[in-house]
Amino acid sequence: MEDVAREAGVSGQTVSRVVNARGYVGAATRTRVEAAMQRLGYRPNSAARALRSGRFRAIGVVMFSFSSYGNQRTLDAIAVRAAQAGYALTLIPVESNASETVAGAFRRLEEHAVDGIVIVIEAHQLDESDVEIPSGVPVVFVDSSRAGSRPFVDTDQAQGARLATEHLLDLGHETVWHVAGPARSYSAERRRQSWHDTLQDRGCLVPEALVGDWSAESGYRAGVRLRDEPEVTAVFAANDQMAIGVLRAFREIGRDVPGDVSIVGFDGLPDAAQLWPPLTTVQQHPERVGAAAVDLLLAELGGDAPAPVPLIGTELVIRESTAPPRR
Known about the structure:
elongated, alpha/beta, six-stranded mixed beta sheet, Rossmann fold
């Protein structure tokens, strides 16, 4: 920094202000300092700054499953918001959501030296009692149990499933069949429970839910089990990919969508509008979830008590895959 100051003809304090983006520096002076830094090949030493400030300017993310659309969008939003705040991202993927696997991820993050952690794991079994969270490290949960005292951000899964189920019932269908997500997924369980409760509240028969694994192939297998039953006129799949598989299964034997059966998905995949017929779906907003998680973490790092974040709402996007049943 002394070399830069001498090269630019300014004080060391001015160089410090430019490097740390603190305090006022005139535009011409800033340009001169940055040019001197470039000529001399000077880069701020993040390790030295971390030792001095006690901050590493890094956020750790523990995530299980990159295959789902929601997780991909959430991670993207976390990365963007962290970068906007001047934080790097350290991503630790875990092979399963078992507590010992997550604990191992925490140990790896301690070695990487991060200021806070965002946990994105779809598991209702995972809460603070399952894993030993490093002491003194702020943690925000995404898409997991609300049982603990840690800050939490999530989509209003129950609202979305209710919108989908009510839409099909309001069209005149006597009941709605459901292709649920994996049993260990907290999101899948909330969507399944909301579908069940909505049917029950409306006095409708509650069919047994079929369970998939979020993939289109598992949706297809569920659709094959349903397609030969003439009483099946409406299906709500817990995500768009499984809905695509259900759609294929019905059309494969000539059952018309939506003439013979209506299908609704959940997620709001961009390509859902390009299917034939275009898929009715519940639009969620993982980009808001990811940004809110980082904001909560930054508030805690700043010494503020993080305010609870309300569940982030969904919207029903109605397209041509749903219609009243044939009489």
